[in-house]
Amino acid sequence: MEEFLTTQEVAKLLRVDPSTIRRWRLDGVGPRYVQVGNVYRYPLSQLSAWATERCEQGRLAS
């Protein structure tokens, strides 16, 4: 079964403020998430894929 993380857990992993994760979500640039009512959860597999993609883009840009 897929593991889901809270906004706070994602922020801690990425070492950013939870408000940054919320802003990314609103701007449509953050990791994929699941919304149930007012609750947002981030599938761990999607977070890993999102982070990997960003790292690859960073290497290509440098």
List the helices and strands and how they pair.
Layout: E1 4-5, H1 7-14, H2 18-27, E2 34-36, E3 39-43, H3 44-61
Antiparallel strand pairs: 1-3, 2-3
Helix pairs in contact: 1-2
Could you name the key traits of this structure?
single chain; 62 residues; alpha+beta; Arc Repressor Mutant, subunit A; 16% strand; globular
Describe it.
It is a single chain. The protein has one domain: Orthogonal Bundle (Arc Repressor Mutant, subunit A), CATH 1.10.10. The model has no long low-confidence stretch (mean pLDDT 90). Helix 1 packs across helix 2 (18-27). It has a 3-stranded antiparallel beta sheet. 58% of the residues lie in helices and 16% in strands. The protein contains 3 helices and 3 strands; from the N terminus they run βααββα. The chain has helices spanning 7-14, 18-27, 44-61, and strands spanning 4-5, 34-36, 39-43. By secondary structure, the protein is an alpha+beta fold. Strand 2 (34-36) and strand 3 form a beta hairpin.
Q: For this structure, what is the CATH class?
A: Mainly Alpha
CATH topology name, in short, is Arc Repressor Mutant, subunit A
Spell out the helices and strands N to C.
EHHEEH
CATH architectural designation = Orthogonal Bundle
Rg from alpha-carbon coordinates: 12 Å
Strand order, biggest sheet?
Answer: 1-3-2
Helix tally equals 3
